[in-house]
Specification:
The complex is a heterodimer of chains A (181) and B (208). Chain A is an all-alpha fold. Chain A is 70% helix and 0% strand. The chains are: A mainly alpha (181), B mainly alpha (208).
């Protein structure tokens, strides 16, 4: 068995291992972008399908997970484009326990999660994607640049713009120090 | 240390990702510069608010049957959206291309000139993204119809996009970016359609 990061094989067993290895991370980032669990699962699976069908064009020197991230992010952005006018499931990222319970603390957490989700959703697609990869996926600028096939300077600029906008959108929470612990 | 250099590393500093030497340099600058110190405080506040959001780990039940369903999709032989679009509009594209060649040929820009337009779009982020010049650009100025068209033209003239799949990914990405500002493939000119058609014909011939 070769290294899993060297996806230049036709071995379906290795492909299955790659899917199992990366499915959670890919699903997680897609869910952050599209904010709909059913669509996120479908898009994450579609990313692996595309990877499989185009495995011959995969460059051996590239990391498989960078490639699959890129496919998944592109599919997610395309989904956003197609569904711009459709309301996303705005509460999809909020733990159900935080909504159903009536404890004030949980209500405050739910309100904060909602405010953050809405704020991030208001960002332009590229800024939103860069911010999610940086903040939630904790990826370095260089890796984000590789995933999105843009320059590192473009990544930094988009991240900077996203941060400035989020400061404005979430100003109430920042100014009042309303952090939920 | 200059303020622009400090800003470049501020996010890494706030996340404790820098080396001890870099950390010390930033700390010294923040102690001396109230503007950067204010920027750092507001960044730290934002990160604190974001980090106080409850994060729910992925429920494994959500990913049950993930792999078998991937195999089902692979075996179902679904045609991707872009290829479907291509098949649907192949004839109109070809007609538009011929029309463009006949009617608009004198107006077609050499590909080398298109790079200049795109370069202008990207310049604001390439040089110094914290400079007053760069920050003077608004999103509305960057994501314009002409820049969208120039970007797509460059993409389809790009000799590094050697497979249909690469082209599809690039097109999806650029279109998704500009769609936030109301631009779509429907806005492309006959000239651009001609370039698209030429490139696709070449790729489809290469890939059989």
């Amino acid at each position: 068995m070769g290294r899993l990061d060297e996806f230049k094989i036709d071995d379906d067993r290795v492909f299955g291992q790659l899917v199992n290895q990366y499915k959670e991370r890919i699903y997680s980032v897609v869910l952050r972008i599209v904010r709909n669990r059913d669509e996120a699962k479908d898009l994450a699976q579609e990313a692996f399908v595309k990877a499989y069908r185009n495995r011959q064009s995969f460059r051996a020197e590239a990391a498989f997970y960078t490639w699959i991230y890129r496919i998944a992010v592109n599919l997610s952005l395309n989904y956003i484009k197609r569904n711009r006018d459709r309301q996303a499931e705005s509460l999809d990222l909020i733990p159900s326990s935080a909504i159903t319970e009536t404890m004030p603390d949980n209500l405050e957490k739910a309100e904060l999660a909602q405010a953050i989700a809405v704020a991030i959703d208001k960002l332009p697609a590229r800024q939103k994607t860069v911010f999610i990869l940086r903040h939630y996926e904790e990826k370095p600028h260089a890796e984000i640049a590789e995933i999105l096939a843009i320059t590192e300077g473009a990544v930094k600029a988009n991240y900077h713009q996203a941060v400035q906008k989020l400061k404005t959108y979430l100003g109430l929470y920042l100014n009042e120090g309303r952090q939920v612990s | 240390m200059r303020c622009s250099e400090c800003h470049e590393w501020l996010d890494d500093y706030a996340r404790n990702l820098l080396s001890p030497v870099q950390t010390e340099k930033i700390a010294v600058h923040l102690a001396e510069c109230s503007t950067c110190a204010d920027e750092y405080e507001s960044l730290k506040s934002l990160l604190a608010v974001l980090d106080s959001e409850p994060r729910k780990p992925i429920d494994q039940a959500e990913l049950a049957n993930f792999l078998p369903e991937v195999w089902d999709k692979i075996n179902s032989g679904k045609v991707s959206q872009w290829k479907g679009w291509l098949y649907k509009f192949a004839a109109p594209l070809a007609a538009a291309a011929i029309l463009a060649l006949v009617v608009f040929k004198p107006a077609i820009q050499p590909v080398s000139n298109l790079a200049v337009n795109v370069g202008e779009t990207e310049n604001y982020i390439e040089a110094d993204y914290y400079s007053p010049t760069a920050l003077a650009y608004t999103d509305d100025e960057v994501y314009t119809e002409s820049n969208y068209s120039a970007m797509i033209k460059l993409l389809f003239a790009d000799h590094t996009a050697e497979t249909i799949d690469t082209l599809e990914n690039e097109l999806d990405y650029e279109t998704a970016m500009f769609s936030d500002y109301g631009y779509s493939l429907d806005d492309l000119s006959d000239e651009t359609l001609e370039l698209i058609n030429e490139k696709l014909n070449k790729l489809y011939n290469n890939e059989g």
